[in-house]
Amino acid sequence: MWDKTLRSKSIKYQQTSGSPLIVDRRQQLKEWLHQCRAGTLELFESIDETTFCVQAHSEFSPVGWHLGHIGYTESLWLLERPTGIKPEYSAYRRLFVADGLPKSERVKLPPIEEIKSYLEAIRNKVLLRLETIDLEKEERLWRWLLQHESQHTETIAFIMQLGRWHDRAPVGASWQNLTTQNNFTVHPAPNSSLIQTNTLTSEMVSIESGSFIQGNDSIDALDNERTAHQVKLETYSIDRYPVTCGQYRTFIETGGYENSIWWSEAGWRWVQSEQVTKPLYWSDDLRWENHPVCGVSWYEADAYARFVGKRLPSEAEWEKAAGGNNTYPWGGESPTEKHCNHNNAVSQTTPVNAYPAGQSVYGCYDMLGNVWEWTSTVFEGYEGFAGYPYPGYSQVYFDGEHWVLKGGSWATRPWALRSSFRNWYHPGVRQILAGFRCASDKE
Length: 443
Known about the structure:
Layout: H1 22-42, H2 49-53, H3 63-83, H4 93-96, H5 112-130, H6 135-168, H7 175-180, E1 204-207, E2 210-214, E3 229-233, E4 236-239, H8 245-253, H9 265-274, H10 298-307, H11 315-321, E5 372-378, H12 392-395, E6 403-406, E7 423-425, E8 434-435, E9 439-440
Parallel strand pairs: 5-8
Antiparallel strand pairs: 1-4, 2-3, 4-9, 5-6, 6-7
Helix pairs in contact: 1-6, 3-5, 3-6, 9-10
């Protein structure tokens, strides 16, 4: 959000297999549902009806549709399917179901306040039901719903950012034009003593050979994170920080987009077809030098890695460097604003060295939050994969055409923030929340 900083309170969310005390777990779920919804609605506090309904990008639904879909999905899975309760506002069914209307036809939405009332009516019934459910049977589903809302609010946050960019842009303008006209503010790092104007060096850390447990079998784990399994890796090195704008600038200025030697065959075809010359939303403002580069496709990340004599890390290499068997890089403590840039606390990227308390056990920064990071791994299920809560939730994307991203972004909510969490995009997608770091076989 270029003209406003949205600040949210730190949320304690400990991802675990569950407390043995049922009453405590019920109360915990109730508190999380409240905290998650409060953060969702905070994004809409000053929105107008036009912004609520407009399609800011052809690949995404309006933010208002995402809000309605959150309510629809909660009603479907926590009320209708388990109990047969008649849905609230049944006329909304076709509008808010994921495989209903095309995205371009989702702009005809009810007023904001009506959709908020829709969510409130559903939530009131959900909270009543929470008091009597068999938690041993249903807790995983309720935690899945928390993560579903979290993922949609992350989408809402960056669509709003895209919308503000488009609203301010004259015809043919680039993000560079907007930044040089002082249309947004670069917010200071949480630790102002850290370097911000001098470009950081491309420092690497060495990860010794050995085995670790990849994946996650906890009650929070999504279907594609399961089952946890042992992986043995040889010694490798990985960047201490995500690649910064300052580092990526060298690739641009030395003709990286004009020389096929750095690109895979598919990547070079993509560059020529899309006529790409720099990352999407690129800025020449030097205040961004130590922020992670973002808006890059997998092809661009792969080309830069070749340019500097490195490669992209595999998902397993990334996950081991992020702490191996720990839920979080820094250990067992749940994420707070001292650990990483997440939960819309800053609502934009921060310098990659801004969170020393969030380092992994190997000394890697920004493994969670700030920007999602591309890996060299194609998205597929682990051995023993079982779809949940329905077969197509992840499995439809096991098509060999999507690459794994790890780590979360500045907009990722705490319920969806952990080292084992897996995101995925087509290699040609240039998402404003996506960046990368490099790896090498050399120590």
